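Lab meeting notes turned into a lecture example. A postdoc, R.K., suggested we walk through two folding results consecutively so the class can see how the record format repeats. The first protein's sequence and structure tokens come next.
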Amino acid sequence: MSTRWKPSVTVAAVIEQDGRFLLVEEETRDGLKLNNPAGHLDPGESLPHACAREVLEETAFTFEPTHLVGVYLSRVRKPGDDFTYLRFAFCGRLGDHDPARQLDDGIVRALWMTPDEIRASQARHRSPLLLRCVEDYLAGKRHPLDMVVTDPSVTA
């Protein structure tokens, strides 16, 4: 019997304010990298809730997803690693910042970058989806949150 293949489900936030996007700089095996505030879906949570949690943990900002920007599939192959990610990217309302809150392990800082700065830093992107999600947001891609349904059995 073969093992069933399962991609890693992740969420990401595309947060724009005054022409700049909120990103995180994080330590990785490949050095300091940039990414959207993002992370894995945890058991028992909805996708929008996971996104709000990840933003808080990685940036110390509260966040309320209001729209789905898109759903993305990517694969990372390196020596010894072969991962496929299924990313749900959300945009929404940025809330309060708690400067006393400690950021997740590996997160060096949250920072704001313009689209041109993001495009110019592609060699530092942790995921090829960082820029794609920003570009889709800039193109006006917004889908209602009711496209993402969480059956009550997930949170029960």
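The second example is placed directly after the first for contrast:
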Amino acid sequence: MVVVLNGKQVELAEEITTVRALLASYQLQEKIVVVEQNGEIIDRSRYENAPIADGDRIEIVHFVGGG
């Protein structure tokens, strides 16, 4: 499956079928992130069941602390 992830076309492994699996593949599942899929922000409680489809446009923003 091919998606556009943060502006770049990426081919995902076939086991990556949900937002949660996508975050896990980038080791982001424990980080504070915001995920937008096709223009809609996905609530964190829906990551486990939010399906990813071929051609989706996904933006992942994660926060970096600092002082």
